[in-house]
Fold this sequence. Notes:
By secondary structure, the chain is mainly beta. The protein has one helix and 26 strands.
Amino acid sequence: MALLIGIPAGxxxxxxxxxxxxxxxxxxxxxxxxQQLLHNFLFKNAGTQILNVSQVLTSCGCTAAVLSAxxxxxxxxxxxxxxxxxxxxxxxxxxxTLFSNDPVNSQVSVEINALVRNLWTxxxxxxxxxGDVPFDSEQSIQLxxxxxxxxxxxxxxxxxxxPEFTVEVGQPLQQPGLxxxxxxKVKAPxxxxxxxSTLEIxxxxxxxxxxxxTIFAGIVGYLRFSQERIYFGMMRPGETVKKVIIAxxxxxxxxxxxxxxxISSDSDxxxxxxxxxxxDGSFSIEFRxxxxxxxxxxxxxxxxxxxIPAEPISVxxxxxxxxxxxxx
Length: 328
């Protein structure tokens, strides 16, 4: 009886699905940014029961995996198609993991590899970095686009997603090798803070038709501060901290007779006073923050009144962290 019972048990141990991949890795060699890579990984069911695939996961959102069938009969084959879009420069590696009812290899990962290189350079800088741009003013930066392999090319078009930026493509130059001047202009809105965009340059180059660069401008008012946000640090309730900043007239107000007539804030915990005017036309202003009994992160705004018609009130942000700290 024991022998008869053992025979079915022995047969069930051999009756199972077995997944076998032809290869679990594929190297595309040299690739380029924003290029779509596709490889089909072939696998078979070498077992005696149906192979059921329950799930396929990828290593990132830039990778997708599609299965030819969720069930593979004994002796049958399936295809796992892995598609990825290259990002960045250098070694590129992405994985896809297949989950099945194979009791030995319930999770099997495949990978694709590539070496991503950039065919383009922008000189003398890789990005359009404007720095501080005062309200209502205009500035421009010109960079030169070149193919690193020396291949001839044409610029088919450009695109930016902020109306404050405009792009002009100049006539190709021979220096040696073909270079194309790209000029980006910015007209500053009356909103302080960083203004960024991605510049897309479309070319007729078959290997890497898209060139991308970053545009950055820091929009400042007619009164520029050495710190756009004053952080008074970590403080105990009742403690007072002083900070000195420099306010400098910019743009059309540079060199003009600018005066500061008053300083106020949205809370009594912050007080400000003008220490004096500096020889270069800037002002030194001292701010004192006295921490309230209420603990936590404190934020607010300081208003500085000036005789600038286009910006009679300039706003400065402040913050502090008030905590009950044990005495050292």
